[in-house]
Amino acid sequence: MARKEDGMQFEIHPAPLKDEQGNNYVYVRPHCWTHRTMEDIDAYCAQHYAMRPGEMTRALTVFRQMSKVWLAWGDRLTTPIGTFAPKLGLRSPKTMADRVGGDDVELQSIEFQPLKEYVEEVDEMANGFRPYEYQFPADILNNKDNLEHALRQSIEANGGYSTVHTFQMFSHLSKHTARKTLDRWCEEPRPRLMRTKMGNMFIYTEV
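and the corresponding structure tokens:
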């Protein structure tokens, strides 16, 4: 069978729950290549939908301001993509309903329930699914050659330095593990990298 080359990529991970033979069940989740921001959304909509730059940000800012009023009343808000509703909970467990007062209740979250049609549209756009060749962090960290190659790719991609984000992308490590690995290369007595703060992030250059 030919290997599928399109569709949403997914990762397979072990779950804590085990079967009768002691084998871990597995679960799947999307492999996220890029974390999109409102800047990305604005730029895409301006390019593909003839919207003014910043129009989506302004629209969602207004929606945030007005929606919190109705959500604070306990209303449900139905939109073209789904429904928003407040989720309540108790601050501590109770067994007697007549002893639950207003001070015992808290707003735990805002739930979003997507419309069935919206889910179907996304599913159709995904065009199926294909596995991402996932490596467990321990296997990646034990492969020194691959880590060196990932660092080199990250430095070249940024034009002379690495960041946690680019090293994470090339090494396939988690953000936390990627940062720890780069920081370890900065440690004495023979540091491989030097860490410098630039704005809100750190950059890593070779010593």
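(Above: one complete record from the training split.) Residues 55-73 form the longest helix (19 residues).
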